[in-house]
Design a protein that fits this description.
single chain; alpha/beta; 4 helices; five-stranded mixed beta sheet; 135 residues
């Protein structure tokens, strides 16, 4: 296979891995209003809440719907955590999607490494410069 074919194949493999990882990590999030969240709390339907550092919203998982995560605006009141704990809701804290950052770093390292390997192993080693004065 020609080197251009290898480059295209490598690019398509990296692109497909990146897209698959992105779609796996970023599941669609459903929106829920804060009054709807309070109604779900009063009906004991809220299983857990996940707060992300420096975020204006939090993720909610309802009982019986473990595959769905709802995004709810964060009221950021002082007694909100106590309110959740009193209502027997599990609280999780997380940072800004560490898995996505790790995947991005691996993807960049892979691309840079592939380009470096290609150039070191003779990517353009057969090109000869001709002297224009000897024509």
């Amino acid at each position: 296979m020609k080197k251009k074919g290898w480059i295209i194949l490598l690019f398509l493999i990296v692109l497909s891995i990146g897209l698959a990882g992105y779609s796996f990590i970023n599941k669609p999030k459903l929106e829920m209003s804060y009054p709807s969240f309070l109604d779900a709390v009063n009906l004991n339907r809220v299983d857990s809440v996940t707060f992300t550092e420096n975020s204006n919203s939090f993720l909610v998982v309802l009982e019986g719907e473990s595959d769905n995560r709802y995004t709810v605006p964060n009221p950021k009141t002082e007694n909100f955590t106590e309110f959740l704990l009193v209502n027997d809701i599990t609280i999780y804290y997380t940072q800004d999607n560490i898995a996505v950052q790790g995947l991005q770093a691996l993807l960049v390292i892979g691309i840079v490494g592939g380009v470096f390997f290609f150039l070191r192993k003779g990517g353009h080693g057969n090109i000869k410069i001709k002297d224009a004065t000897k024509m």
